[in-house]
Amino acid sequence: MGFPAPTPSAAFSQPVGAPAREDVVAALRAIQTTANAIVHRDPVTGIVLPATDVDLFAPRGRLLAFYFSGHWCPPCRAFTPTLRDAYGALLGRSGASRAPLEIIYVSADRSEAEFTEYVAEMPWLALAYANEALRKAISDLFNVSAVPTLVVVDPADGSVVQVSVLLYTVTFYANHAHSLTRSP
Length: 184
Hints:
The chain is 32% helix and 20% strand. The protein contains 5 helices and 7 strands. Helix 2 (74-94) runs parallel beside helix 5 (170-176). The longest helix has 21 residues, at 74-94.
């Protein structure tokens, strides 16, 4: 599964038509209830493991971002460190072990080896590479046609808060990541 890298003219485009809120909530419930759907990189061993204690609906006020990206994509490779730094800054500002914005990587990688290598650079969660049907369903839900794309949703009501193709907005997100969160 792969997505084309965005062209300069597509840099600020949004997918056509945001999904219905109930469809977003249903997709989050499907992710939540599918065994081994979410994985994370163990910070000590570097091994990608199932994330078993994830609650996509808690705490209230925390937003959820789907990061559609791929190891093979130069704009993605350029943006991932910036997003990682912004995520770290959010953790630092919140003083908590979880950021007020949880990120889930949705892979457009060409192989599981690429996925594993790329996830090693990410401190956030990921949809399991092995579950291609779920990755495709989430991509289709948000009409993702290019990477990198970041879709921020409020899991409480399924509303889409922000959708951006990230080729030219890297510095905006690095400098304004705090504005993507909501107070509880």
